[in-house]
Amino acid sequence: MRNSVILLLLIAVISCQPKKESFLSKVQLTDLKGETLDSEQFSNKVVILNLWATWCNPCIKEMPDLVEMEKELPEDFVLILASDESLEKIQQFIERRSFDLSFTQIQTSVESLGVYSLPTTFIIGKEGQLLETLVGARKWDSPEQIEQLKTYLK
What we know:
The protein has about 150 residues and is of the alpha/beta class. The protein has a single domain, classed as Glutaredoxin. It has helices spanning about 1-15, 55-70, 85-95, 145-150, and strands at about 30, 45-50, 75-85, 105, 120-125, 130-135. Strands 1-4-3-2-5-6 form a 6-stranded mixed β-sheet, with helices on one face. The chain is globular. The mean pLDDT is about 90.
C-alpha cells in the first residue's frame, strides 16, 4: 500500500512539471501576404531559421549556398529565411533577386532572441528545441555542412 501511495505521488509530481516551450512558439513569422505562420506546421521537422536583412551583404552572399543546400537536404528539413524589415522591402528584394527560398517576416524582436549580428541561423530540432545558434555567414552547401545538419535528424 505504501509503495502504491509513493508511486502515485511520484506520477503526480512528474505530470505537474511544466512542459518545455518550443523555441518556434516564441517566434512569430508571417508569410509575404502578412498571414501568421503556425509553428505546428513545422512539427517533426528540423527547422533552419536564417535571420537576414536586405542591407546585409554576408546574408545575401550566402543565399545561393542556401538554395543549393536545400536541394541536398531530405524532406525532414525546412529552411526559412526571416527578416524584421517591412514586407514591402522584402518583396522588393525578392523581385530584384531570383532566389528560390522561403522568405518570411519575423514579428518577434530579434534582440529578444539574442540576435545582435546578421546573419544568425537557428537550428531547431523536431521537437521544437533549439539545437544550435550559428552567427555569421557559412558555406551552407559544403558536404561537411550538409553532413553536420543531417546529424540533427538522429
